[in-house]
Amino acid sequence: MMTLKLGDIVLLFYPERKKSWLVKIEERELHTHLGKLDLKGLIGREWGEAVTTQKGKRLFILRPTLEDMIMKFERRTQIVYPKDAGLILIRLDIGNGSKVLEIGTGSGAMTALLARAVAPNGKVVTYEVRKDFYLMARRNLERTGLLPYIEMINDDAKKAIKGSGYDAAMVDIGDPWDIVGKVANVLKPSGTFAAVTPTMNQAERLTNKLEEEGFTNIECFELMYRRIEARLGKTRPSTQMVGHTAYVITARFTFKRS
Ligand SMILES: C[S@@+](CC[C@H](N)C(=O)[O-])C[C@H]1O[C@@H](n2cnc3c(N)ncnc32)[C@H](O)[C@@H]1O
Q1: What is d(CA 238, CA 228) in angstroms, rounded to the nearest whole number?
Q2: In 36, 151, 185, 220, which residue has its Cα 20 to 30 A from 164's Cα atom?
Q3: What are the residue boundaries of the structural domains of the chain, listed by start?
Q4: Across residues 28-47, what is the average pLDDT?
């Protein structure tokens, strides 16, 4: 059994409130409203064990999933939410060895999920025009350990897009219709495509442009995620719900007319 050591990243989970803290085991105390916890005290413990704060609250030591890490990313952009990313990954049909183009790194949430899917033999090439967002995404992605499978480019994809033979493309920028022609130049025939847009107007303009650029099987949809409070004898939907994240557009490329 592997025990925890100095430098390990753990998720401390408080089940009563579904609250969690993503922390590195180091020589300091964690201060929370549930009381203090000496992080050094986690050394030698095992995944799944519980620890108690100085106020007597029990926290479970969990191995952080990629979703846990993404939801704790430093975020200054809207991210692709896991509920949307799940079906996007299926539609993109990527796996170990795939070569993926991403336009709009943002906070790096989707980049991390794409990289996890294509590792260890594939690659994600991702473009971010803003230097501050590029640096933020790099810091976020470094913590996931997925940077070896990602090429990050700090440039305007509309001018800088290069390469060829991409299996899949993921676009998350405000004016995706302006980049579709360039994406079509570097996607493999029959390649997969996905994009997210916050508004219907953007989704409409994009699908129209996809048709013009030789894409087929274009679908636009929205996914609703409704949590259920499942408790014996009183199961009911949660009173809170995220009303809207994004419209998702998926398509297949056919061939490039020269
Ligand atoms: C909504 S965010 C992307 C969020 C990202 N999908 C995630 O899950 O974290 C859109 C990003 O696209 C970037 N962007 C917009 N136009 C761009 C372009 N022409 N080339 C590269 N990046 C661009 C913006 O600066 C912004 O960071």
Answers
A1: 5
A2: 220
A3: 9-64, 68-253
A4: 95
Q: Which atom of ligand 1 is nearest to the CA of 156?
A: 20
| Nearest CA residue ID for atom 4, ligand 1 | 106
CATH of 68-253, one of 3.40.50.2300, 3.40.50.2000, 3.10.20.340, 3.40.50.150: 3.40.50.150
Exposed / middle / buried, residue 79 (Cβ in 10 Å: 0-12, 13-18, 19+): buried
CA of 112 to the centre of ligand 1 (A): 14
Domain 9-64: which CATH class?
A: alpha beta
Q: Is the CB of 71 under 6 A from ligand 1?
A: no
Q: What is the pLDDT of residue 256?
A: 63
- Residue 29, pLDDT score: 94
- Pocket residue to mutate for ligand 1, from 66, 173, 206, most atoms within 8 A of Cβ: 173
